[in-house]
Specification:
Strand order of the largest sheet: 1-3-2
Radius of gyration: 16 Å
Strand content: 5-15%
Helix content: 40-55%
Length: 111
C-alpha cells in the first residue's frame, strides 16, 4: 500500500493531492507512550519554524488520539490477534496516543 501511494504521490497526477506517511521514530521513542507527545510537539514546532523561514521540508502533521482506550477496545474485538506482545504494544506505544505524519509530496504543500 505504501509503495503504491508513494508512486502516486510522486506522479504528475498525485502532485496536487497531499499524501502523508507515518513518520518513523527511533525504537526508544516508539515505546515511551504518552511521554513522547512533548518531544514530538517540540520537533514539529521547530520544523514549522524552519519551513516558514524557507529552510527544510514541510513539518510533519501532529495527530493525537482523543481516546487512547479506543486502541485497546479495537484490539479486544479481535481476540485471536490480541496476544500478550500486542497488549504491551498498545499499553506502551506512542501510536496509542499520537502519530506524526510526513508529507510524501512536498510540492502539493506549495499550492
Amino acid at each position: 500500500m505504501h509503495a503504491g501511494v508513494k508512486q502516486f504521490a510522486l506522479s504528475p497526477a498525485g502532485s496536487s493531492v497531499p499524501c502523508y506517511e507515518l513518520e518513523t521514530v527511533f525504537v526508544v521513542r516508539k515505546f515511551t507512550s504518552v511521554f513522547d507527545v512533548v518531544l514530538s510537539a517540540a520537533t514539529t514546532m521547530l520544523r514549522l519554524q524552519e519551513w516558514r523561514s524557507g529552510k527544510g521540508s514541510p513539518p510533519a502533521v501532529f495527530v493525537t488520539q482523543h481516546d487512547p482506550r479506543l486502541s485497546d477496545r479495537v484490539m479486544k474485538a479481535h481476540a485471536s490477534q490480541y496476544v500478550w506482545f500486542r497488549k504491551i504494544f498498545v499499553l506502551f506505544s506512542r501510536h496509542t496516543f499520537m502519530n506524526t505524519l510526513r508529507l510524501m509530496n512536498p510540492a502539493s504543500a506549495d499550492e
